[in-house]
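Case study 2.
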Amino acid sequence: MIPATGRVLGLDWGTSRIGVAISDETQLVASPLDTLTRRAGRRLPLAQFLTIITRECPVGLVAGLPLDDYGREGESASAAREMGRIFAARTNLPIEWVDESFSTAQTLEAMIAMGRRPTISNIDRSAAAEVLQQWLDKRR
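Prediction:
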């Protein structure tokens, strides 16, 4: 279980990139933080991830699960769970899961509505913030 205070790291899994977001200490607001790049056929970017962990000192992880239209877990959700398990094991941090269906599409739509020019990396980190904010709101 993730402690009620302290910064929480949010993760938005993707086959090419992993969006990363962070909450404030009071766990009220999520902010985009970084984008980890994965190379095809390579392992997860653990060194980059561990650098973020050392710098930000989170108390837990929240990972998005890309569920299908019926709320079921498919290949993408299995891959996201595997990523989360590896990251949690390497950091000894608790992890919780959130349905992240449509988070990237919602993020893109919001960015366009605000007149911001979406780039690949800011979409991924903003989607991670959307996932984390959903968890923070639900937890309150």
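The CA atoms of residues 46 and 87 lie 8 Å apart.
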